[in-house]
Amino acid sequence: MSTLAWTAELVLNQPELDHTHEEFVELLNRYGDMLDRGEDALPAFKALLAHTEAHFAMEERWMAATGFEPENCHSSQHAMVLNVMREVVRYAEDLGDREPLGIVRTELSQWFPGHAEMMDAALVYTMEQRGFDPKTGVCRDPIPAPAAAGEPVSACGSSSCGH
């Protein structure tokens, strides 16, 4: 059983990010498969965590290069997800409690599509607008107009965000 299917709705037409997202889904499914088989899923979960740390760090670099404010909704969500994932590892290793491994599987599979479709899509849009090349790190418009006017990008992609 697949934990999360890689579908066309998850494709953002940004090759580096789409590849990273597809890897995330594969790792999430590998970890889910281990849970389903009753195997020790902690090593697979730790691999997913390591991938997610690198994945989010890449997005954070892109946000910084394209004028997102340092404290933004997107970055805050990354920090929250990583904190939860690290706590799952801590519970498993330090407390011998494996129950959170099963809980976080469902939570991640429900969280990821919305995050990709809203926040990551907003990041890709901003990258396109600024002419940012993730391979070189060069931004055609290094001083975004909103940031120059004192209004950096909040990175949320939602009109309901308070940032």
TrEMBL record:
Tree of life domain = Bacteria
**A GO MF label:** metal ion binding
Note the coiled coil stretches, chain numbering.
Answer: none
Q: Which Gene3D superfamilies match?
A: Hemerythrin-like (1.20.120.50)
Annotated Hemerythrin-like domain ranges read 16-122
Please name the SUPFAM superfamilies in this protein's record.
Answer: Hemerythrin-like (SSF47188)
Instruction: Alphabetically list the UniProt keywords.
Output: Iron, Metal-binding
Stated family: Belongs to the hemerythrin family.
Q: What is this protein called?
A: Hemerythrin
Tell me the organism: Roseateles chitinivorans
